[in-house]
Design goal:
single chain; 394 residues; alpha+beta; 5-stranded mixed beta sheet; 4-stranded antiparallel beta sheet; 6 helices
C-alpha cells in the first residue's frame, strides 16, 4: 500500500506527539520517585531499609530494626564519641549529641572502672603499700622487724599530703607497741628503722601475728588511720631476714564502716564557681546510744591552708540513710583551682554535748585517688553535675 504525501505528514505528526507525551510521562515519574526518596511513608510501604554502617553499643537487635542493621556512630555509655556538633539528622531532629544529653539528663553518675557507669557504689581507692623485713635470731631469742618504706600512700591532709608513721604490734598483745618516726608531708616515706622484740622463745613467736598500722600524724586532733597489714608469723620462714611488700588494707579499728556519701560537683568556668550538691548518704555509723544518728553535712572551702567559707545542710533526725538534696555554690577563680580543697564532713548533731564526726572527704586535684578522680571528671565536664559515691574516712 502506498500513502500520499498528506497521509505521510499526518502519520509523522501522530508519531511525534506520542513521543513527546511518553517523554513527559517519564520525566514526571522520575521526579515523583526522587520525591518519595525522602518520604518515610513511601519507604515503609516499599519496605526500604536503613543504610548499614553505624554501630550503637548496648542496643538490642529488636531496637535496631533487624539483624545486620548497624548504625554508624559508636557510643560510650550514653555519650557519643566523635559525633559532629550542631548537626541535624534527616528527620530534622536534634543531633546525636543532643539526644545523648537528653538521655543522661543533668547528672552524670561515675564509678570505678569506666568513664561513665550506671553502677552505684563508692570508689575502692588504693591505700598504697609498705615494705618491711622480719627475721628471728635463735641465738639471742630476738625477733627483728625492719620498717623500710611506704609507697603511694593516700593524702589525708587538706594540703594534699600526709605525715605518715607506723605502729608495730605482736598480736594478740596490743599493750606493747613500737612506733616509727613521723615523715612529714611525704606520700612515699623512707623510714629504715629497726625494732627488736627480745627474749621471745621461738615457739611463742610463731603464735604471734605481726600487725603494722600506718597512720597520718595530726598535731591537733586524732591521728587518721591510713591502712594496715597483718601477717601470721607461723607462715614466714624466720630463719633469715625476709623482705616483704604488702598492700595496705582499710583499718579494722573503727575507721572503716562509717558509711558512704553521694555528692555531685559542677564547675562553671564562666561564673568561676564550683557547686557541690549533697545528695544522700547510706549506712552511716550510729553515734547515739539508741543505735542511730542525727546527721548533717558541713562543707569548708580551703585555699592552700586557709579556711575561706563554711556551709552546712539541715540536720536529719534519727536517720542512717538521710537524703539531703542541697546545693552549695563556692566562688573559685580559675588560677586558684590547683590550690583549692573542699572538705566535706558528715557530723552527728548532739543537743547536749559536742557534735561527733562520722566521717570526712577531701576533694581536690591532689587528694586521695577517689577524690582526685571525681575532681578531674568535674573539670573535664564543665557545667555538668558529675555525681560519685565516696566512702567516709576517719
Amino acid at each position: 500500500m502506498y500513502l500520499n504525501r498528506e497521509e505521510e505528514s499526518a502519520k509523522g505528526s501522530v508519531t511525534l506527539s506520542v513521543f513527546l507525551v511518553s517523554l513527559a510521562v517519564t520525566v514526571c515519574a522520575v521526579w515523583l520517585v526522587a520525591l518519595c526518596g525522602v518520604c518515610g511513608w513511601c519507604q515503609r510501604k516499599l519496605g526500604k531499609r536503613n543504610k548499614p554502617g553505624v554501630e550503637t553499643a548496648g542496643t538490642p537487635d529488636s531496637l535496631r530494626g533487624g539483624r545486620g542493621e548497624k548504625k554508624a556512630i559508636k557510643t560510650m555509655g550514653n555519650k557519643p564519641v566523635n559525633s559532629p556538633k550542631g548537626t541535624n539528622d534527616v528527620d530534622g531532629h536534634s543531633s546525636v549529641s543532643d539526644l545523648a544529653n537528653s538521655l543522661t539528663g543533668d547528672m552524670v553518675m561515675l564509678s570505678p572502672g569506666s568513664e561513665e557507669d550506671d553502677h552505684e557504689g563508692p570508689v575502692n581507692e588504693k591505700l598504697g603499700r609498705i615494705q618491711f623485713s622480719v627475721g628471728y635470731s635463735f641465738q639471742d631469742s630476738t625477733l627483728t622487724v625492719k620498717i623500710l618504706k611506704g609507697q603511694d600512700l593516700p593524702a589525708k591532709d587538706f594540703s594534699g599530703t600526709s605525715d605518715p608513721f607506723v605502729k608495730i604490734y605482736l598480736l594478740p598483745d596490743k599493750k606493747n607497741k613500737l612506733e616509727t618516726k613521723v615523715k612529714h608531708k611525704n606520700l612515699n616515706p623512707h623510714w629504715n628503722e629497726t625494732f627488736l622484740f627480745e627474749g621471745f622463745p621461738y615457739e611463742k613467736v610463731r603464735e604471734r601475728t605481726l600487725y603494722l598500722q600506718v597512720l597520718d600524724y595530726d598535731r591537733f586532733s586524732r591521728n587518721d588511720p591510713i591502712g594496715e597489714v597483718s601477717i601470721p608469723l607461723n607462715k614466714v620462714d624466720l630463719g633469715h631476714q625476709q623482705t616483704i611488700w604488702k598492700e595496705l588494707k582499710p583499718c579494722s579499728d573503727g575507721s572503716a564502716g562509717r558509711g558512704d556519701l553521694l555528692l555531685s560537683l559542677c564547675y562553671n568556668p564562666t561564673a568561676n564557681t564550683i557547686t557541690v550538691n549533697i545528695i544522700k548518704a547510706r549506712n552511716l555509723k550510729a553515734m547515739d546510744i539508741g543505735g542511730t544518728s542525727d546527721p548533717y553535712v558541713k562543707l569548708w572551702l580551703m585555699h592552700k591552708d586557709k579556711r575561706v567559707e563554711k556551709k552546712k545542710t539541715v540536720t536529719i533526725k534519727r536517720c542512717l540513710n538521710p537524703v539531703f538534696n542541697e546545693s552549695f555554690p563556692f566562688e573559685v577563680a580559675a588560677h586558684m583551682l590547683r590550690e583549692t580543697t573542699i572538705i566535706i564532713t558528715v557530723m552527728d548533731k548532739d543537743k547536749f554535748s559536742r557534735n561527733d564526726v562520722i566521717g570526712k572527704i577531701y576533694l581536690s586535684w591532689k587528694s586521695g585517688p577517689a577524690e582526685v578522680k571525681h575532681w578531674k571528671d568535674m573539670m573535664s565536664r564543665p557545667r555538668t553535675n558529675v555525681a560519685q559515691w565516696h566512702a567516709l574516712k576517719a
